[in-house]
Write a structure and sequence with these properties.
The protein is α/β, with parallel strands linked by helices. It has one domain (3-262): Ribonuclease Z/Hydroxyacylglutathione hydrolase-like (Metallo-beta-lactamase, Chain A). It is 20% helix and 29% strand. It has helices spanning 46-52, 70-73, 76-83, 103-114, 179-184, 209-219, 238-242, and strands at 6-14, 28-33, 36-40, 60-64, 95-100, 125-130, 137-140, 143-149, 157-163, 168-171, 190-194, 224-227, 250-252, 258-262. A 7-stranded mixed beta sheet has the order 6-5-4-3-2-1-14.
Length: 263
């Protein structure tokens, strides 16, 4: 198919965790829809991976944060600092950060440490805090956003992005088993779901391949992408574990992998 038929594309910038890895950067996903570039989380390594994916920080119109842990927000400060230099005029459109309630206070805390070095001109920067209800839909430019709380930390949310053509992507962020995630992911084209550890190493606040598969099956998703792999995942057959509960199209994320959704 020609690229003109692409409705959305997803690039996995970071498929890893807080554990340093040459193979996997920390959590980050780039979504492109109708010319708009959205970033989901910005763990360490995000800006380098953006360049490797033929994008720059100035191309990003929105950053969506699933929660505030360092492996998901660690490159926010460098991102804002880099945006100021060498020439802030490179950013022509505002950068909008979207997150759950509490992000404004989180950002204020960062400013207490870094001061004006991470401040952008008001016309180039805004923060949107969501109500995080599946029934609450907000429209930004040429896409809509829904969000819902999931089971990880107090501020953890999953996102559903629906493009102008109707294609939809859900990004789980970090979560344990969540009925909310099943609801949010119902019949979506693509579910990008954390699968932090193998089944035998299940830990509170995170999914395993078979539990992620159960969520995908119950939600009837059209394609499942597993990501957020700790090193232990590279030592087992993640696909086999997921296939215990899910028999649909399955992708195991790698950094810089690109997935296209067609019209």
């Amino acid at each position: 198919m020609a690229d003109r038929n692409i409705a959305m594309s997803v690039t996995i910038l970071g498929s890893g965790t807080c554990v340093p890895s040459l193979r996997r950067s920390s959590c980050s996903v780039l979504l492109e829809t109708d010319g708009t570039k959205l970033l989901f989380d910005s763990g360490p390594g995000t800006m380098r991976r953006l360049l490797e994916a033929d994008s720059t920080i100035f191309d990003i119109a929105f950053i969506f944060y699933s929660h505030f842990h360092p492996d998901h927000t660690g490159e926010l400060v460098p991102f804002l600092f880099a945006t100021r230099y060498p020439d802030v005029s490179q950013r022509k459109n505002p950068l909008t950060i979207v997150a759950a309630k509490g992000f404004s206070e989180f950002y204020k805390g960062l400013k207490k440490v870094y001061g004006s070095w991470i401040e952008l001109a008001p016309e180039l920067f805004r923060i949107v805090e969501l109500n995080c209800s599946a029934s609450d839909m907000q429209t930004f430019d040429n896409f809509t956003v829904q969000s819902i709380p999931v089971e990880h930390s107090r501020e953890s949310i999953a996102y559903k992005i629906t493009g102008a053509g109707g294609q939809s992507v859900v990004y789980s962020g970090d979560t344990d088993f969540s009925e909310n995630l099943v609801t949010m992911a119902r019949d979506v084209d693509l579910l990008i779901c954390e699968s932090a550890l193998p089944d035998d190493l299940k830990t509170e606040g995170h999914l395993t391949p078979s539990i992620a598969g159960e969520i995908a099956t119950r939600a009837n998703v059209r394609k499942l992408v597993l990501t957020h792999f700790y090193p232990e995942c590279d030592q087992v057959n993640i696909e086999k574990e997921c296939r215990q509960t899910y028999d649909g199209p399955l992708v195991l994320a790698e950094d810089l992998m690109r997935i296209k959704l067609y019209c």
